[in-house]
């Protein structure tokens, strides 16, 4: 009996050990994708003076096409009102976060990746 | 017993691989955070212009305001306080050192010819940090440095990033 329990424990921990480094790496890459997309979007928005629907759509397309996120899961809140020069434009991207452990035995951490940015507008009327 | 020993070694190997991986990941994430934050910070700094000079067709930075913009941007993106020390929510653990924050504009004295101001294109060089860049217009140059916020102790790697934001003439 003890051997059976031991085997099952070994197997379950072995499975978790096999996948966790890769899943952790994936989580880190997802964060990177969100951060880079947001920063590049912010640079474009600074010139336009706001996050235009085009820029927001472009950020979503980038996350969907290149990083395999589902479009309906991506929440982007951004300054869409025209902002004069030297005032801040802000944006936040929130996407669901994947798992870290294949078997749900440990704390998986937060359920979302959320990243905010802020940049001064360059727009001159 | 054999199961227990096997398990022990597996967990040991896992822990070792994890330490290496998470540490490298911290280096990479830290470098990226620093670069992205710095690019936005030099952008914000470059927007502070001296309006009176602008009327005469000269782009001259209002350096006090520019430094404030630069600081505010880094404070927001890296979660640091006004002396660049990390707050509790920050990804970083060590103070962010602003090593270089240089403004090259239409009022900067040419170091090779001290009686005149610089003309663009201008080759900016900084031997200390190995920065060489051809500037086509007034620019803000910044170099920041910090230690990598590694999860597991050991010698901390130094992360250093440079960014230039220029007005294209």
Describe what you observe in this structure.
The complex is a heterodimer of chains A (125) and B (169). Chain A has 2 helices and 3 strands, in the order ααβββ. Chain A has helices spanning 2-48, 53-67; strands at 75-78, 88-96, 112-120. In chain A, α1 runs antiparallel to α2 (53-67). Chain B has 3 helices and 5 strands, in the order αααβββββ. In chain B, α1 (2-46) runs antiparallel to α3. The longest helix of chain B is centred in the N-terminal third of the chain and has 45 residues, at 2-46. Helices cover 38% and strands 21% of the residues of chain B. The model of chain B has no long low-confidence stretch (mean pLDDT 88). Chain B starts with a helix and ends with a strand. The chains are: A alpha+beta (125), B alpha+beta (169). The interface between A and B is medium-sized, with 28 and 27 residues.
Radius of gyration of chain A (CA) equals 20 Å
State mean pLDDT of chain A (0 to 100 scale): 89
Globally, the shape of chain A reads: rod-shaped
The chain pair forming the largest interface, with residue counts per chain, is:
A-B, 28 and 27 residues
Lateral arrangement of strands in the main beta sheet of chain B: 1-4-5
- How would a textbook summarize the main sheet of chain B? 3 strands, antiparallel
The protein's oligomeric status is heterodimer
How many beta strands in the DSSP annotation of chain A? Answer: 3
**Terminal-residue CA separation of chain B:** 75 Å
Order of helices and strands of chain A: HHEEE
* Number of separate helices of chain A: 2
Strand and helix order of chain B:
HHHEEEEE
State the share of residues found in helices of chain A, binned by percent.
40-55%
Share of helical residues of chain B: 25-40%
């Amino acid at each position: 009996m003890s051997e059976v329990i031991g085997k099952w424990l070994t197997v379950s921990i072995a499975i978790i050990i096999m996948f966790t480094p890769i899943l952790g790496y994936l989580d880190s890459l997802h964060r990177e994708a969100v951060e880079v997309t947001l920063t590049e979007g912010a640079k474009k928005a600074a010139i336009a003076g706001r996050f235009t629907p085009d820029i927001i759509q472009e950020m979503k397309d980038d996350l969907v096409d290149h990083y395999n996120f589902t479009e309906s899961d991506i929440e982007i809140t951004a300054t869409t009102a025209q902002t004069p020069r030297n005032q801040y434009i802000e944006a936040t991207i929130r996407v669901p976060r994947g798992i870290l452990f294949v078997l749900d035995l440990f704390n998986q951490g937060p359920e979302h990746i959320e990243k905010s940015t802020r940049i001064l507008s360059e727009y001159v009327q | 017993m054999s199961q227990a020993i096997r398990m022990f070694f597996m967990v040991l190997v896992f822990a070792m691989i994890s330490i290496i991986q998470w540490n490298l990941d911290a280096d990479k994430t830290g470098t990226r955070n620093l670069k992205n934050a710095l690019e936005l910070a030099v952008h914000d700094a470059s927007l502070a212009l001296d309006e009176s000079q602008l009327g005469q067709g000269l782009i001259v930075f209002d350096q006090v305001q520019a430094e404030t913009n630069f600081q505010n941007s880094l404070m927001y993106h890296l979660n640091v306080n006004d002396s660049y020390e990390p707050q509790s929510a920050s990804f970083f653990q060590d103070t962010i050192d602003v090593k270089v924050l240089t403004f090259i504009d239409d009022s900067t004295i040419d170091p090779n010819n001290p009686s005149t101001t610089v003309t663009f294109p201008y080759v900016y060089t900084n031997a200390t940090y190995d920065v060489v860049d051809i500037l086509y217009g007034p620019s803000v140059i910044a170099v920041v440095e910090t230690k990598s916020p590694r999860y597991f102790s050991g010698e901390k790697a130094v992360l250093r990033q440079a960014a230039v934001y220029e007005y294209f003439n």
